[in-house]
Structure formats: structure tokens, C-alpha cells
Amino acid sequence: MAGVQDQLEIKFRLTDGSDIGPKTFPAATSVATLKESVLAQWPKEKENGPRTVKDVKLISAGKILENNKTLGECQSPLCDIPGGVTTMHVVVQPPPLEKEKKAANQPKQNKCVCVIL
């Protein structure tokens, strides 16, 4: 029975309601590895897909999962049903706009305004 508990069946729900998976992962799998799997399985016909693992956020049980954690560490005892499929939500961060890139490259100028009435 311990071997069955070490395997988790996970499906990834995209923002449009479609799913990737379900697929079985060992409990020792890192969140970063899950993100790589999502990136590799991302439907080609979908627009605005993630370009890198950094563009992907995984949410499970209302919490954003950190890359350095494992599935076993992220597992919620209240939400996971033994032998059931766990759904993780996938959020893709949009690429930064050109304005934001230019603003980030320019040094900030401190401006002080005084008004005397």
C-alpha cells in the first residue's frame, strides 16, 4: 500500500477550462519538474502559452506552489482523496509589455513637489 501512496495522479486545469492529463507522478517530484511537464504538454493550438517554466504558476488547494517543494510536501490532507485525481490550476504570467521593459531599464528619478497655500 505504501507504494500506491507514493504515486499521485494529477491533472492540470488551464484557464480556459481544458485539462492536461491526468498523469501519475511520484510524491518526490518537485514542483519545478511538474512545471516542465506542463510546458512540454502545453497544447500547441492555444495562444499565449508559457515560454519558460518561470511563466507558469501552479495552484493547489488555493496555494501557489513553490518550485523547490515536492508533491509530498505540497499535498493537502483535506483535499486529496486516496486513489483520486488531484486537480492543479495552471496560471500563465503574460510577458512584460515593452513599456514596462523600458521603464525598468531607466533609472528612477525622484521628484519632489511642494505646495504652499
Automatic annotation (TrEMBL):
Keywords: Cell membrane, Lipoprotein, Membrane, Methylation, Palmitate, Prenylation. It comes from the Eukaryota. It is a lipid-anchor. Residues 8-74 form the Ubiquitin-like domain. InterPro entries: MUB, Ubiquitin-like_dom, Ubiquitin-like_domsf, UBL3-like, UBL3-like_ubiquitin_dom. SUPFAM superfamilies: Ubiquitin-like. One of its GO terms (cellular component) is plasma membrane. It is found in: Cell membrane. PANTHER family: MEMBRANE-ANCHORED UBIQUITIN-FOLD PROTEIN 2, UBIQUITIN-LIKE PROTEIN 3 HCG-1 PROTEIN. May serve as docking site to facilitate the association of other proteins to the plasma membrane. This is Membrane-anchored ubiquitin-fold protein. It comes from Herrania umbratica.
